Amino acid sequence: MQSQNRFFDDMARVASGAMGALGGMRGEIEARFRDQLERVLAGMDLVDREEFEAVKAMAARAREEQEVLLRRVEALEARLAALEEAAQPTPTSSIS
Which member of 3, 4, 32, 47 lies 3.0 to 4.6 Å from 51 by CB, making a disulfide possible if both were Cys? Predict the structure, then answer.
């Protein structure tokens, strides 16, 4: 009976050691994968989040300014059309 318990204890130690080794291998594989992924991403010339957000804000500001300028141009065109219409001589009907 003693030898059977010892056998199971040894098997439990072997299984525990194997699980520890597998866990270590998993960590090593994850670290290598992460390093490789970082190298690939670094070579892709991607922008970071801060740069993207800054450019996004600049584009939104530019869009707002463009809309304001468009409204001003439309108002000026309307005033110009009104001035041109007022400056045109009115046709007079000549009764002879």
Answer: 47
